[in-house]
Amino acid sequence: DAKTTQPPSMDCAEGRAANLPCNHSTISGNEYVYWYRQIHSQGPQYIIHGLKNNETNEMASLIITEDRKSSTLILPHATLRDTAVYYCIVPQSTGANSKLTFGKGITLSVRP
Amino acid sequence: EPEVTQTPSHQVTQMGQEVILRCVPISNHLYFYWYRQILGQKVEFLVSFYNNEISEKSEIFDDQFSVERPDGSNFTLKIRSTKLEDSAMYFCASRARAGTDTQYFGPGTRLTVL
């Protein structure tokens, strides 16, 4: 898998936007960027993914730089329930295996 | 919304005993996975399963581990002779098809080996 680098932690105030950065400078042209989160010890939860274009869904927005070497996950109005570990993952190309390799992620703390 | 389910939520066993962890993947998904997370550590890939056979397994997935899809809905992980170091959260995941990497995870089974 392409290696990703995330800061270990960040915090933001409730109601404000949380911008979570990720570097993936070795990403290749057909590899997607995926974001998952894990709240406490629950199962990882899929958030969003993208290839080149910015993506938005009901949970978050994903901004990918033009050179695709980095991306930012944006939670537009963070709530206390968004406190979690967020993982930026670049899986190997889709195929039979397509396992996910989790790093340490970034711990987001949303403060009241 | 369809989801992956896992049972039991917590399993306590004695060292050397066999355990079976059960998962019901999302209906019509074709690819199945087991991951584990030792307390305080990263989520680690164990095994992937497609078309009734193992696609890939990690170094962790030794001869003590096996997986099975006994019927059209369940996907199981068996640990033949549990060790203390097998204590962890075990997560099942499923994926719809080739062409997407999106995996959906279950809530996990906490395995405690005494």
Word description of this protein:
The complex is a heterodimer of chains A (112) and B (114). Chain A is 0% helix and 42% strand. In chain A, strands 1-9-8-3-4 form a five-stranded mixed sheet, with no helix packed on it. Chain A has a four-stranded antiparallel sheet with strand order 2-7-6-5, with no helix packed on it. In chain A, a hairpin with a 6-residue loop joins strand 3 (33-38) and strand 4 (45-50). The model of chain A has no long low-confidence stretch (mean pLDDT 93). The N and C termini of chain A lie far apart (37 Å). Chain A has no helices and nine strands. Chain A is mainly β and 112 residues long. Chain A has strands at 9-13, 18-23, 33-38, 45-50, 55-56, 61-64, 70-75, 84-89, 106-111. Chain B is mainly beta and 114 residues long. Chain B has strands at residues 5-7, 10-13, 19-24, 31-37, 43-50, 53-57, 65-68, 75-79, 88-95, 103-105, 109-113. The mean pLDDT of chain B is 94. Classes of the chains: A mainly beta (112), B mainly beta (114).
Largest sheet of chain A: 5 strands, mixed
CA-based shape of chain A? globular
Largest interface, counted by CB within 8 Å of the partner chain's CB:
A-B, 23 and 29 residues
Report the strand count of chain B: 11
Order of helices and strands of chain A: EEEEEEEEE
Number of distinct helices of chain A = 0
Uncertain parts of chain B: none
What is the helix fraction of residues of chain B, given as a range?
under 10%
